[in-house]
Amino acid sequence: MSRPDKQQSAAIGAFTVRPLDPAADAELVHGWVTHPKAAFWLMGDAVLADVEREYRDIAAHPHHDAFIGLHDGGPAFLIERYDPTEVELKGLYEAEPGDVGMHFLVAPTDTPVHGFTRAVITTVMDFLFADPSVRRVVVEPDVTNSAVQALNKAVGFEVLREIAKPEKDALLSACTRAQFEAATGGNDR
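Structure for Acetyltransferase, as requested:
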């Protein structure tokens, strides 16, 4: 699904999502993924060519894609969506029909806005669940990433178990559509 989705929050602003263009967005994304606040993205030492290559590979992959999230029209976050039976979690968990995997990264800022990251993850989940075939979102944050674990819990994720991935020890977590709606107020947002 490549259509933009939009969520409006009076306090925070408007969010939209568009496909990431590896060539046009590489410099922007490079600044985000190499920033010290993005340590869990594991690209801190990447040069611009590495980032462009990574996102060209994702764009070409049949089971992985990336998007830029916009806040009031300006780039503000990154989303990766993947089929966990083919990418990232292949062979590491018991997949269910309708599972989709997700990573998200909020752009670093010197002027944080209270509630912004929660609004971003809610937008990401709305975007993923806009596809009626998606029944559950699965994630695998680093076991030491307590900030994203708290955000995940706030939007309905539950930890299934710890798993060992080649690059990290992760907390396999999942969130069904019903869990997300219960945690965030569903259509009341």
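Helices lie at 22-33, 48-60, 116-129, 146-154, 177-184.
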